[in-house]
Amino acid sequence: MAHDRLPLAVFDLDGTLADTAHRQHFLEARPRGWDAFFAAAPDDPPLAEGIALARGSAEECEVVYLTGRPERCRADTVAWLAAQELPQGRLHMRRNDDRRPARRTKLDVLRRITRGRELRMLVDDDELVCDEAERAGFRVVRARWASASAALKDAQERDGRT
């Protein structure tokens, strides 16, 4: 089967594949320490449940990564994905100047990349992203295997940064 005909499995990064607990304190400060938060991302431990699901999905799907991380983090993000031996796949990141809530930015990308393609699943830990994706008719797997962070949820919704 041609690669562009495989169903898509779309994975979020922070809180889904990458454990961000060690860098949450940067978001609890005022003002938030965004540069330090993203600079610490290469040290994220992998989340076993998400990693296993991504690897398993590659057997039948084209794996795609969809993150709210800004484009300036691309090199670190690509290196982290490779270090975890995750399937190769397209990486969609937020424009550096995009401050819209994650539920809006991610749904825009999902709609674009699924034109004419089956979406097998979106795997994300952000409940608002999941709710919006389900309302739009997408199949969602809620990544509930990481510790929830109130600071990260607030940042995703209010600051449009991840």
Number of strands: 5
CATH class: Alpha Beta
| Tally of separate domains | 1
Strand-pairing-aware structural class: alpha/beta
Main sheet: which strands, in order across? Answer: 3-2-1-4-5
Rg from C-alpha positions? 15 Å
Order of helices and strands: EHHHEHEHEHEH
Q: Under the CATH scheme, which architecture would be assigned?
A: 3-Layer(aba) Sandwich
> How far apart, in Å, are the first and last alpha carbons?
34 Å
Which terms summarize this structure?
162 residues, five-stranded parallel sheet, alpha/beta, single chain
Structure description:
The chain is α/β, with parallel strands linked by helices. The chain has one domain (3-159): Rossmann fold (3-Layer(aba) Sandwich). It is 38% helix and 16% strand. The chain contains seven helices and five strands. The chain has helices spanning 25-28, 34-39, 48-57, 74-83, 102-113, 127-135, 150-159, and strands at 8-11, 62-70, 91-94, 119-124, 140-142. A five-stranded parallel beta sheet has the order 3-2-1-4-5, with helices on both faces. α6 (127-135) links the parallel β4 (119-124) and β5. The radius of gyration is 15 Å and the shape is globular. The mean pLDDT is 91.
